[in-house]
Amino acid sequence: MNTQRTIVYNQRRKVLDGEDITGNIETMISETIETSVNAGFADLKVISTRLELSEVVSPLEALFLSKREIVIPEGGFERDELEELLLEKATSAYKAREEEFGCAPGTDIPIMRELERVIMLRVVDEFWMDHIDAMESLRDSVRLRAYAQTNPVDEYKREGFDMFEEMIGGIKEEVVRRVFTVRIRKDESLQRRGVAKDFRASAQNVGGDVSARRQPVKKGQKIGRNDPCPCGKKRPNGLPAKYKDCCGRNA
Fold it and tell me: What is the pLDDT of residue 221?
């Protein structure tokens, strides 16, 4: 937990210090596209049909692509060719959003720079708080692994690492989704606000309105990104397909 906390807080400190994180956002966009392309090309060398192409582009159409914007060329798409085209489309759409938002009043700094920091802070805080709760639950439950003649400490480290990797992947996907879909009001200046608010204090400040407090979210059993897919699909080598590469790639 100390190692994970150091990684997360270092990232937050860069954002709070006002560093330009555009490069981080671009990397996240590239990795999101790469993940989607790899999932679509799981058992293929060339994509030549609309159905095969939809497996790749459908998660991206809600971000920066319009319906049927990508046309399959004669001979189909190879992996690198499609990935390069999608990255070009994403870069163009991102620049268009930056031009649409313009610059902060009285400055030549694009509003998108501040928006990137606000989104990054909010998403990291949301996922990190959920991760802390999950790690506490893991710590409480891992003690029972000793009855199965396994070392609880080793199990805690292994599962904690997998959960942290899953959290990082979730942060990247959510940041990319928000930077392409967020809307801002043109008639109001953009202000930086705290993203880790005390909802209980907020409720008291508005006259004790209990409905303003955050309510607990009931979650069912969660399938890890690297767990075997429950649909039972197999990879070419005979091993079970991972959830993130099968039914969970659009989750």
Answer: 65
